[in-house]
Write a structure and sequence with these properties.
Blueprint lengths: L20 E2 L5 E2 L4 E6 L7 H5 L3 E7 L8 H10 L4 E2 L2 E6 L5 H20 L13 H21 L5
Antiparallel strand pairs: 1-2, 3-4, 4-6, 5-6
Pfam families: RF-1
GO molecular function: peptidyl-tRNA hydrolase activity; ribosome binding; translation release factor activity
Protein name: Ribosome-associated protein
């Protein structure tokens, strides 16, 4: 029995993360600041690849975002400098056949990228001195090595 035309596999524009992208516990990027573009994914897949826009490009304007504070923006701009194009960071996902899964992958990738960029710098290393024992072992090893080299020399007296 025919039940009418099958729904066409195509673009899915709403439904994923309507409230925003959770980056850290204290920072959620509003949905309005994220831009998604959909295109056809390359590679194998036959007819499915030729008809669906499953590749997802997720972009976030770091320089123009009101949800980032000045310190966070400066840190993100510094750490993401090699990935920024005109102050915008872009993440691409095309590893899944379904657009919805690619959207989720792109959002997860963007969240981890921003979280890593916004993480506070690690504490600076505390200067320590080598222990007496390690200094003694180092000097003894150098002397042994010098003795080996001295014994290799020819004695032409």
């Amino acid at each position: 029995m025919l039940a009418g035309p099958r729904p066409r596999a195509g673009r899915i524009d709403q439904g994923v993360g309507v409230e925003g992208l959770q980056v850290t516990r204290s920072l959620t990027v509003p949905e309005a600041e994220l831009r998604e573009r959909f295109s056809r994914a390359g590679g194998p897949g036959g007819q499915g690849v030729n008809t669906t826009d499953s590749r997802v490009e997720l972009s976030f304007d770091v320089t123009g975002s009101p949800s980032l504070g000045e310190a966070a923006r400066a840190r993100a701009l510094e750490r993401l400098a090699d990935r920024l194009v005109d102050g915008v960071v872009t993440v691409v996902a095309s590893e899944h056949r379904a657009q919805l899964r690619n959207r989720e992958a792109a959002r997860a990738r963007m969240a981890s990228l921003l979280a890593a960029a916004l993480a506070p710098p690690p504490p600076s290393r505390r200067a320590t001195r080598p222990t007496k024992g390690s200094q003694r072992r180092r000097v003894e090893a150098k002397k042994r090595r010098g003795d080996v080299k001295r014994l290799r020399r020819s004695t032409d007296d």
